[in-house]
Amino acid sequence: MSKTLIVYYSLFQNTKNVALEISEQTGGTVIELIPEKKYSFDYNTAAKEVRSEISRGYCPKLTSGNKPIEEYETIFIGTPNWFKTVAPPVMSFLRQHNFAGKTVIPFCTHGGGGFGQIEKDIAKECSGASMLPGLAVNGAAQSEDISNWLKTIGFQL
């Protein structure tokens, strides 16, 4: 089995819960992306901060998630859907690494917006990688949902 990494950013724990379930089912290593400056836990304040960062193309400095990824062959990348794209800490991670020759599998959590542009945005930053179909979770994912998705994309222990 190839070395598997599950990397994610989660403000309200939804994406974290999906990442942990993927790890449980794949045996992959989990890395949480933590920006140097934390976002507000107040939804409206966080939304203003994020909207500004996304519109400026800002990539925050990460205090966690900077480790080399060369040893991993498969990388699951998880993000909340923030204004139809990846959270800025995820974009920071994407721009810090070379994904050529790796298999990249996106997943996101959302409140009704699905993937938005997330799959396209991740694919754009991961040139040279093989992309597998991702999973968009509205709210909380059930273990069975993740298991079925992993089987669908041919990823099993």
TrEMBL record:
<protein>
    <recommendedName>
        <fullName>Flavodoxin-like domain-containing protein</fullName>
    </recommendedName>
</protein>
<feature type="domain" description="Flavodoxin-like">
    <location>
        <begin position="3"/>
        <end position="152"/>
    </location>
</feature>
<dbReference type="Pfam" id="PF12682">
    <property type="entry name" value="Flavodoxin_4"/>
</dbReference>
<dbReference type="GO" id="GO:0016651">
    <property type="term" value="F:oxidoreductase activity, acting on NAD(P)H"/>
</dbReference>
<dbReference type="InterPro" id="IPR008254">
    <property type="entry name" value="Flavodoxin/NO_synth"/>
</dbReference>
<dbReference type="GO" id="GO:0010181">
    <property type="term" value="F:FMN binding"/>
</dbReference>
<dbReference type="InterPro" id="IPR029039">
    <property type="entry name" value="Flavoprotein-like_sf"/>
</dbReference>
